[in-house]
Specification:
183 residues, alpha/beta, Rossmann fold, 29% helix, 27% strand
Length: 183
């Protein structure tokens, strides 16, 4: 995996061969971070189902204030920890846990400005993740939520989320939502 922009642009990082782990491709990442450019600097990011760390590490490279990577696979988490150390990414942290279980426990810490949701497609976790994000105190009032899914995947977002951008690449659909604080 290669970081495509920011301070670590061009850095190549390893990731293990783990079932269901597919890093977000360069073209999709480039589009996503173009969309996020006005909002990423200083943002608190949450990279759920981090896998290779492509999204959370890219966010740090582009000036995010903090990035919490959540990955349940021990091999992938160990590689993420090594990549954070290699990059000297002090503003990055890692939790080796199941993302959905963590979300369902709720968040009492500072909520996140940008959340990346890219679970293994075969698990069909989008709806459960969206629901837990909205009800668990994970999102800042005007958070931005990125969701990557299969083209045919169905999920319903809360009424206070508005679709900002939407694109498809092959069998992958990716969307960026802006959350308005519920009145």
């Amino acid at each position: 995996m290669r970081i495509i922009g920011g301070q670590w642009r061009g850095r190549k990082l390893g990731f293990p061969d783990v079932d269901g782990l597919r890093p977000t491709g360069d073209r999709i990442r480039e589009t996503l971070f173009n969309w996020l450019a006005p909002d990423i600097r200083g943002a608190r990011c949450l990279d759920l189902f981090a896998g290779s760390g492509a999204l959370g590490l890219e966010a740090l490279s582009r000036g995010a204030g903090a990035s919490l990577l959540v990955e349940r696979d021990a091999k992938a988490a160990a590689q993420l920890r090594a990549n954070l150390a290699l990059l000297k990414a002090d503003q990055g942290s890692l939790i080796n846990a199941d993302a959905l279980t963590l979300l369902q426990q709720g968040n009492s810490a500072t909520p996140f400005d940008v959340v990346f949701v890219d679970p293994p497609f075969q698990l069909n976790l989008w709806q459960a993740v969206v629901d837990a994000l909205e009800t668990g105190g994970w999102l800042a009032d005007e958070a931005i939520v990125y969701i990557e899914s299969g083209r045919e995947s169905a999920y319903q977002v809360p009424p206070n989320w508005t679709l900002h951008r939407d694109k498809q690449a092959g069998q992958v659909s990716y969307r960026l939502f802006y959350r308005l604080h519920p009145a």
